[in-house]
Amino acid sequence: MRSQKKIVLKRMVGASLLEVLVAILILSLAALANAGLQISGIRANSSAKYRSIAAAHINDMADRMRANRSGLSYFNLVKGIPSSDPQSGCSAVSTPCNAAEMAQHDFYEWTTALSNAIPDGKAAICLDTQTGPTNPATDTYTSPTCSGTGTTYSIKIWWDDSHGEKIPQIFTTNFQP
Fold first, then answer.
1. Which one of 72, 88, 94, 145 has the lowest number of neighbouring Cβ atoms within 10 Å?
2. What secondary structure letter does DSSP report for 96?
3. Mean pLDDT, residues 163-170 taken together
4. 168 Rama class: left (phi>0) / alpha (psi -120 to 50) / beta
5. H, E, C per residue of 50-83
6. pLDDT at 172
7. By three-state DSSP, how is residue 153 classified?
8. Residue 159 CB: number of other CB atoms within 10 A?
9. How far is CA 103 from CA 6, 26, 72, 118, in A?
10. What is the pLDDT of residues 57-77, one digit of tens each?
């Protein structure tokens, strides 16, 4: 009788250990799934942050262009970040500059702020007759798709939002000053 009780007790302990192992496995899988959701949420939040920053910078440049209508001719297919401010005197009240110099100064300040705010942030501004959204596969920083004609300006910002995969994102706004 005693040996039967020992066998039953051993079976109960073995079954309990098996149940504990299964419970640990299920909890581990749930924790991994939760971690995956957290990472996905962080990536989406990061993408939204950079898109918001790009929109704010586009609005800033559109306002600068509207304020300097005489210097608009400078902005037909201008891109890149100048290595230094070509018109650094434009920021001083005592040193007036003409509309083209002010446009160059605005572009320098704007692209410098953009590159500091967004990872691998690049921009191009051009005249464009296209009014719809651009195709990120064909509209690249090295060759932005702009017609170069018309009265509508297109401000395009590219940045690295790939988290290591090097897939550039693009945010574009078309406006008439």
1. 94
2. -
3. 71
4. beta
5. HHHHHHHHHHHHHHHHHHCHHHHHHHCCEECCCC
6. 85
7. strand
8. 24
9. 91, 62, 7, 22
10. 999 999 999 999 888 888 887
Cα(60)–Cα(53) distance, integer angstroms: 11
Nearest-5° Cα angle at 50, 44 to 54: 140
Tokens 């509508």, located at residue: 152
Task: Classify strands 168-175 and 122-127 as parallel, antiparallel or unpaired.
Answer: unpaired
Rounded Cα gap, residues 54 and 59, in angstroms: 9
Q: Which two tokens stand for residue 109?
A: 């300040």
Question: Above 60 in pLDDT, residue 8?
Answer: no
Q: Which amino acid is at 127?
A: L
* Amino acid sitting at position 91: S
Beta bridge pairs of residue 176 = none
Residue ranges of alpha helices (H) inside 84-127 are 99-117
Q: How far apart are CA 49 and CA 115, in angstroms?
A: 15
